[in-house]
Amino acid sequence: MLGATRQIPRPAAETGTTRRASGLRRFLKDSRGGAMIEFAAVAAPFIALIFANLATAVAFFSQQMLDTTTEKMARQLMTGQVQKAGVNQQAFKTAICNDLPDFLSCDRVMVNVRKAADFGSADTGVASITFDANGNVTNDWKFEAGQPGEVVLMQVYYRWPSITGPLDFSLATMSNGERLLVSTAIFKTEQYE
Fold this sequence. Notes:
The radius of gyration is 33 Å and the shape is rod-shaped. It is an alpha+beta fold. The chain has helices at residues 16-29, 34-78, 81-85, 89-99; strands at 109-116, 151-161, 178-188. 14% of the residues are buried. The termini are far apart. It has a domain at 61-188. It has a three-stranded antiparallel beta sheet with strand order 1-2-3. The protein is built from four helices and three strands. The chain is 39% helix and 16% strand.
């Protein structure tokens, strides 16, 4: 049987159900796109985490800049430099704005300086910010720089525009969707006269 050819039996014609089952088995065994599917599953939380880290870092950096400026300007009040120069509320706010970095807008800064009878009676709580129908702040801020030997409380507020990120991440602390950054200094003015 040297010249004889061997015949391989052919399977019976596949039905539609059999073809679908074998196609599904091949699909489930195929791992060529596994990494892409796994990345797609973790991409949204990963991007949200990166965004949350960046947004939090920028907000904390801005808070630190506000604290540094508040400390510097409180020192000028404490030593009587502001009082001797006859600086008014608007000029004091402008001096604060000039000391802040450029990315912190002056129109979002609010300054409240008031005297207290002593350290124990000073109200260091955060003011409740109120808005009119147009979104403008309606609070009435004081500027009582204090005389020699008086206790003075200085609070600087900044309305940080909060951005809502992926997965509804937000740093907002106010009803209008902004975060209120607050820096407070309480001190007794020196005998500068």
